[in-house]
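Exercise: predict the fold of this chain.
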Amino acid sequence: GFLVERGPASLSQPSPEVTALLELVGLWPRRISPLPVTANRWTVRGGRLVPIPRSPLQLLRSPLLSPRGKLRLAGALVPHAAAAEEESLGTFVTRRLGREALERLADPFQQGIFAGDPDHLSMTHAFPGLSAMEAEHGSLVRAAARGSGARRTMVSFPGGVAELPATLAAQLPAPVRTGAAVHAARPHRDGWEVELQGGECVIAPELVLAVPPRELGLLLVDADLTPALTQLTTMPAASLATVALGYRRSSVTHPLNGVGVLMPHCERRQALGILFASSAFAGRAPDGHVLLTVLIGGVRQEPLVHLPEQALIEIATREAATLLGARGAPVLSLVSRWPAAIPQFDLGHGRRVDAAHAVEHANAGLALAGAWRSGTGLAAALESGMRAARRLEGLVAA
């Protein structure tokens, strides 16, 4: 009776292009919207849950920041000069809002997106919207006070996000082959030759490689492109383990009135966050039950991802008990591991953008796609795939 999302749990902020794709394949009418309580989000201070403020006034009244931290925010009303060089998220926020704002506000925010290290993530490439907001309004505080920024929207489907790839695959003119590991891809007189692990070769006039950056070493092209490929294959990525926990509703004291909990790294907890899966969308747990998803790992806690399954379940149940009042053993526990799953848009990422363009420009009929090009999240990955298609149709430049 549970519906467990082992990967992405929703399509967040789908663009008009993504919406058009969903309409084209008949999925848009099947979409389901989040339940009303998802407007709420939680974080942790001193081991206790604290609501994430949704306005500057709520922030002033919140225990999330100390009085000193709130006073420091007042300094953010003074316009700051643009940085002379690329900044990390950590440097950007600390310089404008203070270290406490970084640890209590910005860090849990990025944990939910990148599971990264704010001192390494590039403002230019990881959070271009924040820089634009500051440039437009003079300060981040003014931007927040004016309600700047796109409203966060999420959609899913009754059968979960898996409906999307299944629907796309069913409508393709040729069948999708799974379990066919690719050993190499190289230029061919008729376009491209893809060699499978068992020795079979597939010839095609055009090729889209939608693989993680570290796997792009399978691309066998001119040696002059070796430096560019090295830039791509060495892109860092965060690994993640997810633990789905199903409980009887009566076993969890917290009302679960929100989308979930994001953990500041300074709290030194073993989870990155807990998503209230059954509070986000209907149909995720049977009557009288709730479903939680505990996120473990990330750049700063990579070793935890590789613990035995039982150890991960123990971490997850302990976090659920401590923060949400979950009592007793869960009726469901399911561990999923995603090695190198979340690309890190770190300082110097612009070199990788240039490298990807160089590889495509030098190889007609080749397009590279993936979340590492356009941003984390399923919607961004879809946009990257559509860009690849437009490039091969000659509608966009390399």
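Check your answer against the key: The longest helix spans residues 309-324.
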